## 1
Amino acid sequence: MLKLTKTQTFLTANHERFRLLPLSQLAAIADTQETSLKSQTHTQKPLESHSSLHIDPKYFVSVLLNCKNIFQIKQAHAQIVANGLLTNLFVSNKLLYIYVQHKAIDEAYAFFGGMREKDPVSWSVMVGGFAKDGDFVNCFRTFKELTRCSVQPDNYTLPFVLRVCRDRMDLLMGSLVHGVVLKSGLCWDHFVCAALVDMYAKCRVIDDARKLFDDMHKKDLVTWTVMIDGYAECGNANESLVLFDWMREEGIVPDKITMVTVVNACSKLGAMHKARFVHDYICSMKFSLNVILGTAMIDMYAKCGSVDFAREIFDGMREKNVISWSVMIAAYGYHGQGKKALDLFPMMLNCGIMPNRITFVSLLYACSHAGLVDEGFELFNIMWDKYGVKPDVKHCTCMVDLLGRAGRLDEALKLIENMTVEKDEGLWSAFLAACRIHKHVELAEWAAKSLLELQPQNPGHYVLLSNIYANAGMWEDMAKVRNLMTKRNLKKIPGWTWIEVDSKIHQFSVGDKSHPLSNEIYGLLKSLIEKLELAGYVPDTNFVLHDVDEEVKVGMLYTHSEKLAITFGLIATPEGTPIRITKNLRVCGDCHTFIKFVSAITKRSIIVRDSNRFHHFIEGACSCGDYW
DNA sequence: GTAGGGTTAG
């Protein structure tokens, strides 16, 4: 609270001494347009005398709204005190809000603490201030204090608190706040409801989010948007697009933000027809491409398999920032076009854009997938000295991957041993994958041990280690790993593959017979495999990890989801067009070999996307190399 | 005094 002293200075709540400026000067600083009130200050006696002159509170509010920095806010604050307007809740709430808007949270909190009277607005401005500042501790504390003071949380306060729960993925706290929402009777408020849906969706409790969403009588655009985004985040991008269609059928017109989430869903799905449709829709709605929507679209086309379309969008963007450049670099990277990724780097610097840590991850990743060892090393060596980006565990992972793929396991090992940053599961996985490629069982065991310590519940790690033992013919060790998995009640994550034909997504899992064309698919697959075997394809049963007989195993191997999807692609898509499939997990070695043979025999080019990397198969060769 | 959006790493 400000206090007037004899020397006409003010002691602020933060114990700073602040000299009072004449009100006329304050008006000039704040550049207020409220001239009627400004003229009042000129015509009347100077206000420095702090007479009991009546000033309209609206005048101070307009001054506050025009403040451009903390200095001006404090001047206005001092004048408010001097003119005895602190008791006016409208004025003091506005002052609090202006402090928060200028991110002066400490000043805001100090002022808030001194407020003699607080109404729900004061509380929500403060709670919102902490929420926007990312200060969850004070946000929750203030919220608790509010409930203790018997103040009813309102439709402003609750979304702020829910936002913090969402950002922290704090489902427990989110559920507690949901309880408060139910008590408050605000569960049908748009803002509260959208925040609840968003919180549950981002906490990955998508069914609860959907239930709330379905129960809403009238859903506004924001609620549709958070639900669409929620599905994409939870790995069900198909449902995002279903919702988008439904939303438009309901007559809701999307805006740019909604389109960003829809574009994002297309990226996750890797569905080119959908991508084209969404792009056409964006054009038809005459949405100009801002940097966020443009960047999302680069990513969408790249992840739908067309790095060239991505580049077209990129080239057409008027404004590009470091994210746009990084996305384009990453796109070339996972399409195996390392040189093009590297070419973008000097262009980016020429445009005055400074690279960040993700730019370097993308560059190093591009190097490792194109075998550009020297170029990768050079970037890794200069990133800190020249660009001030300190190599972290992700950059080291790229380097381990780069060296590992190139067969330089000893150097990768040295890098791991000399690392000062904490090692994570990604790093060990990269090293383990390299050990598998180069059949180094001993080092693989060492990496796997660290990996299993870090993530004992991830079945993927057990599968990888088991495959390494299998490849080395170490059946007893393989059995041990499999037993360990059983003991720990871990099951292999189900793999599924999807293919888009005529704007429809067809999804397959191993041995899947649910597709209407199942008979045709299995018939063609059988004859295809016979042909492939004549051409030299030998199924590798090491890639099936099931406790079943060898014969059954071969059967399962023949019906891998990738094989079913590709066979369906051969039936359902015209000759001469590429077959694009997407898999949720990595394509296993056996399928990789299978696809090579299919592309050789059928002369169809096949583009496979798995975990965001692309394998382009043309006439029996894979552009991303034979190992992955 | 309120809500929703873009990148990377096996």
## 2
Amino acid sequence: MSAFSEIRAEVATALASASGLPVSEVDGLLTWPPPGVAADFAFPCFTLAKTLRKAPPAIATEIAAKITSGGIVVSAAALGGYVNVRTDPGKQSARVIAQALREGDRYGMSTEGAAKTIVIDYSSPNIAKPFSIAHLRSTVIGRALVNVYRALGYTVVGVNHLGDWGTQFGKLITAFKAWGDEKQLEERPIRYLLELYVKFHAEVKSKPELDDDARRWFKRLEDGDADARALWQRFRDLSLTEFNRVYDMLGVTFDRFSGEAFYNDRLDATVARVEAKGLATRSQDALVVDLEPYGMPPCLLRKADDATLYATRDLAAAYYRHEQFQFHKNLYVVGSDQTLHFRQLFKVLELLGEPWAASCVHVPFGLIQFKDGKMSTREGKVVFLEEVLAKAVELAADIIREKNPELASRGDVAKAVGIGAVVFNDLKNRRIKDVLFDWNELLNFDGKTGPYLQYTHARAASILRKAGALSSTPPYERLVEPEESAVVKLVGQFPDRIRAAADEYEPSMVSQHLLDLAEAFNTYYNHHRILLDDDAPLREARLALTASVKQVLKNGLSLLGVVALEEM
RNA sequence: GCCCCUAUAGCUCAGUGGAUAGAGCAAUGGUCUCCGAAACCAUUUGCGGAGGUUCGAUUCCUCCUAGGGGUACCA
């Protein structure tokens, strides 16, 4: 339990005994006062008015009078219908900071997920297509969730469910057979494959028979045709080489690189399983699971030519994951445009009578929007992630040259800052929001950004370097400034925010908390001197506070996949 | 048509059913002989509309409007 949770529980207990309510009920109502009110917790008495048949202010006055100071609680005062409780700032600081410094890199982590496995499907780019800024979202959100669940003690299996199968390969093979150029494929594989893909979609408008060719090629691929298979392998290898370069830049890793093709030899058994349950029906020559009673279009398992689809392979993958890992949860970090697909998939699992269908969760995120509409691979309307990262790193290097030309290892720092800016930009808001692609915002390093957090961390690091060794027993009771209490509170709440982020599959809960902390610390820094010359004990206490801030920023940034820098 | 998501300041977004709705960007003006000015301080503007539930709604429910997405052989 975090020190902050313990403090909250103590306040709730005090209020419970004063009001006669159960602690759990008090805890549920407990809130905090607005900025103008000098108190740490607030207890609203409005719900009691009915049962007690008294006005809320009168109830608040009675409860406040019964609260005795002692322990963490210093005083209680009624104001309107609220009981405002003040806690001892020194004791609060002592507990919170001591815990943060004692636990260090483990602060915020727990073992509550021990013996539970969580499978997370993330990134999952389509082979033979460019790694765009759209894939970045799944990649960084998924990676952050992997880190968050690991921090809570879960066993996590991160799966890159590569889009390495499907009709798109029929299209690519068709296009390559028709217009392919070996030299271009060797020299600039992904961009060239994208061009072929775009050309295919442009040509198919006037030559619809190309679609039939594509379907035939995919069918041949599924049936193990050597020619099709060889081209597929080549496209896949070339793509993976490019993807790995991007993953290296981002520092992203996976436990499994199993794509859709991996499940190819399990598809017949999967379809058979659905048929055995009597769920599969022939409709318009295709094999489907009728979902009409649930208000959804049918889930297609086989096309008219018996080739499989996305849903078939996802179904096989779900069974495979359950058999392999007996997951506690099976998460899919995939864009919100695929919500219906997952609703269908989970419904089919439910109809198959799998109790673990309820443990499968789609974790959707908003789409990247351009000023002129949605991104479209088919029209070649994409922004390459490598280009974005390169620009960000270049800009970071410019700023370093200007602000800190003497800095050692400027190249590494520029990389960390530039990439940190792009990564954090994708994690700072609630993931469901669509993102308008905007170079200015992406390349902004001021305000609520990754570099701002890195800067605050580096600033704290700089102070601690100058200070030398820390005292092991600083007088925490000296930390009574309101700006200090604000920082302490945020340090103390950090572990709870990690849990909330896991509960809601929402990395932004960590991001927003780090921004709040950095803001509070920078405000504090600008109002009070830490490295005091004339008050050694207070200096020690403030340094301990600074060290705890640095620790939280470091741990939080690490969860988000952003490098915490000592200097920048 | 039907289904899902979103709507808070000029822009991008936070916001636990509670007391005066907060940040950043942009703009303007301040703060470095002082621990890192990628920082801090100050100034201005707002909960899409209408009902409902509630002691109390930006928050929950319904309807409407707007934007985005999806809607059988792509993923």
